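I would love for you to help me understand the pair of lines that follows before we discuss the fold together.
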Amino acid sequence: MAATEGRTPPDADAPTVAVLAGGLSHERDVSLRSGRRVAEALRSTGLEVTVHDVDPDLVPALSQLRPDVVWPLLHGAGGEDGSVRDVVRMLGLRVLGSDARASRVAWSKPVAKTVLARAGVATPEHVTLPQSLFRELGAAQVLDLVVGQLGLPLVVKPSRGGSALGVTLVTTRDALPGAMVECFSYTDTALVERAVTGTEVAVSVLDTGDGPFALPAVEVVTDGPYDYDARYSPGRTEYFAPARLDAATAADVAEVAVRAHRALGLRDVSRTDLVVDAAGVPWFLEVNVAPGMTETSLLPQAAEAAGHDLGRLYRALVDAVARR
């Protein structure tokens, strides 16, 4: 049978891949789009790819199929906290991406920031506040202490989570209680950090078998906060790939992203979000072990800016894992 136009004929000796997409997190729709895009790219190289949701059929399906590589493209809890990766490991299957232990460390923003600070990476000063603390000590007093310690502006974000859900930039003391309420609608613990102004960039790190390397930084410019709508609605955000950085600063942000990848024990793929201030200092914000792969996501933009064909690049990741 003739191959589909633009698609490499199936290779009987190539690894089989199971892509995991969906799940029940707030980022389900993004995950489904990521999974579909990656599956299409891998199939274009001749790989046999199946796509699975995270539901009661997943374990029986993986047990029967026994794919050579499982690629979790699950965002939010379950996909990035290591739990699904643990289940895949217990099935005796190879996972593309970080293992469960490293995923749990990276998933917790306060823990990841602490690890990176100890590794010599600049990260904004912050406090971590569980919702229960406000009931015990009184919200107003705690928030006054936060402003007194960190100043304004501040960024309030869930201590775990992605896609900027529950994240608020706070410029006045009066706006802080509302930001905390918004944050607590997604998690029971808030990370409040000093806002750093500058150029927002994201640096993706890949490892196709010869050690981690950084793709070009992608600069993010929005007409407001880089929130969920701005991330996934075409036209809300302008991207520059590569970022408009001088050569020295571009090298610095790449080095920070690779250092974060190594320090956190990550594997295969990650994306580090940074702000470069007016002095050219890159400030670490957070790292993602399952970066988005949608049509507006930053990793695919970076890969294309570097001249990579997405299908071949994703295939190289799969082949490296299959050999592991």
Q: What stands out?
A: Confidence is low (pLDDT under 50) at residues 1-5. The longest strand covers residues 199-206.
